[in-house]
Amino acid sequence: MKRRNIIKGLSILPFSGSIVAEAASFHTPIKPALAPKRDFFKELGVTPVINASVTMTFLSGSLMQPEVLEAINSTAHDFANMYELQDKVGAKIAEMLHCEAAMVTSGAACAMLLGTAAAITGTDPQKIKMLPNLPGPRPEVIMQKSHRYLFDQAVTTTGAKMIEVEGAAEMEQAINSNTVMALFFNAAERSSITHEQFLTVAKKHNIPTFLDAAADVPPVENLFKFQKMGFDLVTFSGGKMIRGPQSAGLLFGRKDLIAAARLNHSPHEAPIGRPMKVNKEEMFGMYAALKAYLERDHKKEWEDWLQRTKYIGGKLETLQTVKTKTVVDPGPANAFPSLFVTWDQSKIKTKPEDVLVALKTGTPSIVANSRNESLIVGVVLLRPDQIDVVANRVKAVLQQAMA
Question: Which of 29, 52, 114, 375 is the most exposed place for a label (fewest CB within 10 A)?
Fold first, then answer.
């Protein structure tokens, strides 16, 4: 399962036909801001989009929480020593995640590059300066063949070579003096080596392990689960369901590796990670986002998401032949409920793909998804004031296609 796959294998929750009385009764994760003095969308001719999908980079990730915006705005008026700030933010994040050390990166892909660089260079200033052009054999990173994906290019950017393996025995045979790290893609569709087997083999040969779990919250427990398993480094995206700045991420784990990762990053002036700097506002924002996420009532938030699917589903089922069901993606990425909508296409003469086009090109522009013969309406990223907008627009598109 690649991170860009929107909906994977499915498990279905019972769907109730009841609807909530008022959309305004939903939990409010994002408070609509006061009317801005200046409309930059209009000024630049950029179309605002309602995200009835999942957290995707091309759709600007997610919407930052009020606490994050407050952290960004309140720290934008003063300078800060970036070494000190990364020290203090990293220490607080490590405390919150119960790990040895942590740092803020410019997204999970940057964390993968920095983690690999740390495994290659350690704290050796000469190696840091020469990366990715170290003399001698290329460093090797072991990865399951079924785990290869678009984002492992962040690993090879360091000059490392990917070594594909299948099964624990082949993984062990692949380890040699050039092996610097073993990478586990947590959202892969298939694994020939379990997490536990992977860790056992790597630890036997003292090879650092890295787990990419970029989009793998909720549940919140995942922030702690994999480091407890024994992974040396773990990354999560900051701009997905943690609702921090899109261009921020978390890298945490072993203290010595985080120290080496930081030496390969800005504000140091020459390392491979210098182009991937994180500004002070994003560091404060990421700290605020993680704190708010950990303190959130996740059970209540989940119930609110379910109520949203029921509410929208109830409106759509007033149309003849339309049926809806709430589907929870099993994860580990995008593990939250969405609304699946089907209809008799001999009565409502349109296909889900055509509905997607109508939604995207309409006013307002709405991005949703489809799978097979189902229209998929995501609810977790909708502002409260957008719930009725999405329900009414989908209903209107289907009504227009009725025979």
Answer: 29
